[in-house]
Structures are given as C-alpha cells and as structure tokens.
Design a protein that fits this description.
- This protein is an alpha+beta fold.
- It folds into 2 domains: 143 residues, no CATH class; 121 residues, no CATH class.
- The chain is built from 10 helices and 11 strands.
- A 3-stranded mixed β-sheet has the order 1-2-3.
Length: 285
C-alpha cells in the first residue's frame, strides 16, 4: 500500500481490511452496504462519531487481531456473498442483517433498512424473503421486528426517525411518506415527509440544510401553501426528535386538524396528467 493512501477515507479502510481475507469470508455489515452504494453507512458511530471496525464474516477462520476490523463468527453460505467492484461482499440482505445485529435496536435497524432501500439495493419485501429463507438464526427476531417498522419510502434517516416518533411515541396512525400533494387545479403544493391524509396533517423534518436563507424561504412558502389549503402543518428540528414536547405537539396538531372527507378538501392526492408525464411511475391515488 503506498504511503500516500489516506486510511481515514471509509472506502480505503474497507479495501485494506478486505485484503486480510483468506480463501473464505467476505466483508459484511455497514462496510458491505457502503461498498454496494449505500452512502448512509459511513463507518462512523451515530452516538459518538468514532470509527467503526470493518465487519469481516469469516466463520471459524482465524485472522490476526487488529482494531481495524471485527470478526463475525456466523457462517457465510456461498449464496450470501459475491464479488462486487473487486471485493468479496456479503449480499445486501446478509450485510443488512449483520448491521441490524450490531445496532441492537429495532428502531435503528428499521432506519438502516430504509436507507438501504433508499440507496436502491433492494426492497423491504426482498429483505422479508431473506429472513424467511434463513429461518431460525441468532438475531432473526430482532431483524423481523426492525423490518416490521421499516416502510421503504423514506428519503433520509431523519424522516424515518420522525415517523417512528409519530407512530410509536405519539401513538398516532401510520401516515403516508413522501407523496406529492396537489391543489384542485393540479398544482403541486409540495411533497411532505409525513402526511396524515385522514386528518389533513403535514409534517416536515428541518435539518441543518434548512437553515440556509434561500432554503428557509422556500420552506416557509411551502408551509403557507399547505395551510392555505386546509392542511395542519408542523416541523421537527434537529435535536428535538423524541422529547415530550415534540410528542405533545404532534398530538395537538392532529387534534385540531379538520378531518374533512375527500370531496370537501382543497387538496388532493390525485396525480395530474402533467405529473404522470414527468414521473411515469406515479399512480393516481
């Protein structure tokens, strides 16, 4: 390895540790998901920012100890790995399974599933098929619980956390995610992170990018459009995801919503022709 190689780059760390493998094994967990194109898995701990060791699924194979990798003793069948961009990688389902076990929580596991799906690696349904195929295995109960919380339509981890707060902490009905909302003339009002269509409530997560002046102005204009058409609107900002005030506000917003029947709403989920032409995969609701 040349001295100029930057081992702080996550892909470089993955390549270096994959080189330790003998005849058996593959990278797995967050590293395999990253190598397969899911940029959310950056090799850093979400709690303290420390660098995570690269998971190597090697079964009973012996490797010289090194802080740069962690050995996964679970066996790796032939169908659970392949060569991807020159490295031996666990298939995305197996890599995701190992990552959920590392996370040790169904909520965090659900976010990992959603981010793997958002990266185009597969679908929640395909992950369920994998879980059905592996049968009884250490960690499968946790993985099933995480898959039950995942929806596969979130665009960011913050959206996933917010919707978990809405459903699990506030105890409110499962909403729609990232669906376009139009006025009665076919004009786009916006694509909210969360939409409770029955109540008429829109929810948005506002991260650091929304502090930009131009972006903030667009956010305010979008919120005004939603409110002008009879939709209740709330925001969740970074650092206020699970506190009691956020849960209370979610419940209060829904309590004061209009709950109008579809015929009396000034907004609709019906997809107009111009949107279908630009987005051929869209379907009228």
């Amino acid at each position: 390895m040349p001295a100029s190689a930057d081992s702080s780059v996550v892909e470089q760390r993955i390549v270096e540790q994959e080189a330790r493998l003998g005849r058996y094994g593959a990278i797995s967990g967050w590293a395999a998901l990253r190598w397969r194109g899911a940029s959310y898995f950056d090799g850093q701990s979400r709690s303290d920012g420390r660098l995570l060791p690269v998971p190597l699924a090697v079964g009973k194979e012996c490797l010289r100890a090194d802080p740069g990798f962690v050995r996964l003793r679970r066996q790796l069948p032939l169908w659970e790995w392949s060569v991807h961009r020159g490295l031996r990688c666990a298939v995305w389902e197996r890599a995701l399974f190992d990552e959920i076990i590392r996370l040790r929580g169904a909520r965090a596991g659900a976010v990992a599933i959603d981010m793997a799906v958002a990266a185009g690696l597969g679908t929640v349904g395909e992950f369920w098929l994998y879980l059905a195929h592996v049968g009884p295995r250490n960690g499968v109960v946790l993985a099933r619980e995480a898959a039950g919380l995942a929806c596969g339509t979130h665009w960011s981890p913050q959206e996933a956390w917010m919707c978990q707060c809405w459903c699990l902490d506030a105890g409110l009905p499962t909403p729609l995610y990232n669906v376009p909302v139009f006025d009665r003339h076919g004009n786009l009002l916006g694509i909210p992170d969360l939409l409770d269509a029955d109540a008429g409530v829109v929810g948005e997560y506002q991260g650091a990018v929304h502090r930009d002046a131009a972006q903030h102005r667009r956010d305010v204009e979008r919120a005004e459009r939603f409110r002008a058409h009879g939709l209740e609107y709330f925001e969740v900002v970074a650092g206020r995801m699970y506190d009691a005030a956020t849960v209370t506000r979610m419940r209060e917003v829904r309590a004061r919503a209009k709950f109008l029947p579809s015929a009396e709403r000034d907004w609709t989920l019906e997809v107009p022709a111009w949107w279908q032409e630009r987005h051929p995969d869209a379907r009228a609701s």
